[in-house]
Every structure is written in C-alpha cells, then in structure tokens.
Amino acid sequence: MSEFNQVSIVKAANIYFNGNVISRTVKFEDGSRKTLGFMQAGEYQFGTEQAEIMEVLGGSARVLLAGQSDWQTYGTGSSFDVPANSTFELKVDEYMDYCCSYI
Questions:
Q1: Which tens digits make up the pLDDT trace of 61-102?
Q2: What is the pTM of this model?
Q3: Can you tell me the distance from the alpha carbon of 97 to that of 23, in angstroms, rounded to the nearest whole number?
Q4: Count of structural domains, the chain
Q5: Which of 82, 87, 86, 88 has its CA nearest to residue 102?
Q6: Band of the pLDDT at 56, cuts 50, 70, 90?
Q7: Contact at 8 Å (CB) between 53 and 88?
Q8: Are 77 and 56 contacting, i.e. CB atoms less than 8 angstroms apart?
Q9: Residue 56's domain is classified under what CATH number?
Q10: How far apart are CA 72 and CA 41, in angstroms?
C-alpha cells in the first residue's frame, strides 16, 4: 500500500535522539495507528510496549532484536517484526525511511 486513506495525523512530531529520528503518528478509523518516520545515519536503541512491524520504505539498517546474537540487514521493501515489551537496536549507515505498524 503506497498511501493511506481516511486517516487523521497528529501534527506534533515524535522526536528522538536529538532530532536524528523523527516520526508522525497516523490514526485510522478502526482505532489502529502507525508511525511514518525517518532515521538519519547513526546507532539507535528502542523499547516497545506493543508488538510492531517495521517496514523499510527507503534506505536500510542493520537490526539486532533482543535475545538474538546476529545482526540482520533490512533494505527497501523489507520488514521485520519486533515483539511487545522488548528492545531492538539499529545501525543506519545512510538513512532509513520507515512505517511502523503497532499490532
């Protein structure tokens, strides 16, 4: 899906890591939400409350999920699942444009 219809968008940005990661929240009529974001080059660690699907819209990142020992690379068109109540680390070499779906 390249666009969302019948949504509302929270105007205020979610800003992390001194502005190196920025996202906007998109709310759907059924109560679900997603964030659309952009990560500049850098290393980041995030925690989750809900399970997430991270879809890479552009660029790439190396990802280490909690409990795993091997980094996996995800590029444009790929996605990865992050369990609820977990953490994950990302190493972004250039940039990563992403969509995060909360499930």
A1: 999 999 999 999 999 999 999 999 999 999 999 999 999 999
A2: 0.93
A3: 10
A4: 1
A5: 82
A6: very high
A7: no
A8: yes
A9: 2.60.120.10
A10: 17
